[in-house]
Write a structure and sequence with these properties.
The structure holds 2 protein chains of 2 kinds. Chain A is 61% helix and 1% strand. By secondary structure, chain A is an all-alpha fold. Chain A has a two-stranded antiparallel ribbon with strand order 1-2. Chain A has a two-stranded antiparallel sheet with strand order 3-4. In chain A, α15 packs antiparallel against α16. Chain A is globular. Chain B is mainly α. Helices cover 64% and strands 3% of the residues of chain B. Chain B has 5 helices and 2 strands. A two-stranded antiparallel ribbon of chain B has the order 1-2. In chain B, α1 packs parallel to α5, α2 packs antiparallel against α3 and α4 runs antiparallel to α5. The chains are: A mainly alpha, B mainly alpha. Chains A and B meet through α6, α7 and α8 of A and α1 and α4 of B.
Chain lengths: 576, 247
Amino acid sequence: MATSATIHAHAPQGFIRKYIFSLDHKVIGLQYYFLALVAVFVGMFLSLLMRIHMIWPTAVLPLVGEIKPETYLQLLTMHGTIMVFFVLTTAPQGGFGNYFLPIQIGAPDMAFPVLNMLSFWTTFVAFVTILAAFFVTGGAPLHGWTGYAPLSALTNSGPGEQLGADLWITSIAIFCIASLMGALNFITTTLDLRAKGMTMMRMPLTVWAWFITAILGLLAFGVLLSAGILLLLDRNLGTSFYVPLVVVNGQVMGHKGGSPLLWQHLFWFFGHPEVYIAILPGMGVASQLLSTFSRKPIFGYKAMVYAIMAIGFLGFMVWGHHMFMSGMSPYTAFAFSLMTMAIGVPSAIKTFNWLGTIHGGRVRFQTPMLYAIGFVSLFVSGGLSGPFLAQPVLDIPLHDTAFVVGHFHLIMGVAAIFGMFAGTYYWFPKMFGRMMNETWGRIHFVITLIGTYCVFMPMHYLGMAGQPRRYSQFTELAYLHKLIPLNTFITYAAIVTVLAQFIFVINLFWSMFKGPKASDNPWESTTLEWTTATPPPHDNFGGHTPVVNHGPYEYSVPGAPRDYIMQTDPATVASH
Amino acid sequence: MATFSSPVSIDVPSTGQGGGGVRPPAYGGGDDGRGDGSPDYGQRLRRVRLGLAIGLTSVTMIFVSLTSAYVVRRGLPTLDERTNTYVRDWIPVDLPTSLLLVNTLLLLASSITAELARRQITRQAALAPVRSIPGVSLGEGKGFPWLGATVVLGSGFLTGQWMAWRELADRGFYLATSASSSFVYLLTATHAVHLAGGILVLLYAAAVSLLNRPVEARRIVVDVTAWYWHFMFLLWLYIFGLVWFIR
């Protein structure tokens, strides 16, 4: 296909309009992607410092020196916040979603390109704001990524709770606004810009995942924004939304009558859907890849769509399961527990369908496929401990232990990251016109998969043995002595896994310039992005609008001339 | 590997399943009108209206969460440190009712003028093709400046709200006096910020009318701002009702 970017007369020419303040969703997608790439290395570095401190508590470390308990809390706060907001929310949705949602539905761009640009640059401002918290008097806040009041609501509750905490809340609030703008754009684009023939039930599952994720974001981020504003008012203007009568260091604070639980309700009303905001795009990518690389239609397309919807819907009903320990009526806890376990049903449908997709397929074990399989593996491993924690009677001993840390890192952290890796290896040829190195991709996969299991699986033992989370130092605690070897093992595994990520980064940038040239459809996929040039022209399809005649996963159709039918192939290519 | 696949476009698509989706986007339609050819204003209007509806969903969520906080906080007892007992500390706010009623009327009036501005520019946009026919005269067609009236009335409402805050302060209700007064300030200020945003958009619409932009493009801005304005009026009624009936 000989189309090129030059066909579109209005492709911007200047460097600034083309790469910095670009209106092109593809450039904006890459901007989100690279922002998340920077953020993930910052977050990973912080976690490495924490792991090292856990087993060598007196070690003097680069940049931070000896880690004091409050420094440790600052590290974990910033690690959690940066990872959740600027990696797990930014790359899968803002990055891949921005780049590929319009192409996969046959649109020339997002519905509102200017808004799209604004939402990226607002996210960027939020990122700079949160990084600034490291460099102000008192340093970064120490109230954890969940920012529980009254710790987060008082300016004298600890180092970092002065300007650092204000910057943290401001950053989150800015991020909320950016995400709301993004969500608005995603939803409008999906509803209004689909090409002819692209019915909702012909959309790739990636598009469904981004669409439902955007709806979750639209409903959840507004709540976090309100909660953050109340917190800022409590901190700076003397209101008492979250702060009860409280004495800090012998000093009676001016607040009265506020409810710390109110923050928890508002925060988790956002916080639980946020888990699905992080993981749903990964589910979409896994579905797309498992079908493509098994050369089989996705097993139960409609069931997959309804399962995404069900997960999104139920995600709003379960926030209370984060608060079983916070003081809650047993009846309420029972209701939240029941709803939480109900999420197991659509999750199991998805897992079953993924396995059904691979079963009997002619599987091509290329790097993107390995990561998609890794995603399913981690989703199952991390997900199975969910029903444990969903039950108040089990959650009470396991709450705030390393068990929870292991659980959510596997399912929300690493599984989502595997979704991003899968997406990167899969779409890299389309984004950059070259192939990533397959051998190094596989090596990266093997080390990362084994490494992350070695890091997070043993944490379940630690938690059951009673090791609390967020404690800076426990080597002196007699009852945890027998766990020191396990903790040491985790730290070594973490170091190896972190080092392996440099393989990925080198592969990424090396392949961008030196990788072998990619064809327009190297994986023999069916969706619309593979019908256009590589990389796609400014308006995605070089001046014509695609017409869709097929579902997204028509692989190995009997009677078809080849084992896949593109969505734009003529309707009569095969009768089935 | 590396099988080359060309896109196939055909004239008659199969639309047997599910009705064939929506119309394809006009070329360049998603590019803010910088594409080739004349932009499809009707389609763009529909798209922006859809975007507005989605955006208003998130605004609704903000006020839903503030309302939840309001109800929860109102029901909470507070520990009184002198008597060491739980007491209710929710002090009903002495609202400047007559002033707020005047403000409500101002906002209602501005909502009506916004609607008239919307209908006026819709008519102008509909007549625009006729106007370009040589020899056809439709008169001046300027009409009453409803848009300007909306900006004036909206600013009047904001000024009135400012006066209401001053009045509240004079009556001893500051932001941090009581949770009840905190919520009154917070809810009205959040609403005022949203309304101020609407005024900025209207000013933008007035500015582009000076820039010789096609009337169809201005119509989109005015149309969605008018709908936004109506929403802001209803939202104000809701907030007023909340802080009045649930004092």
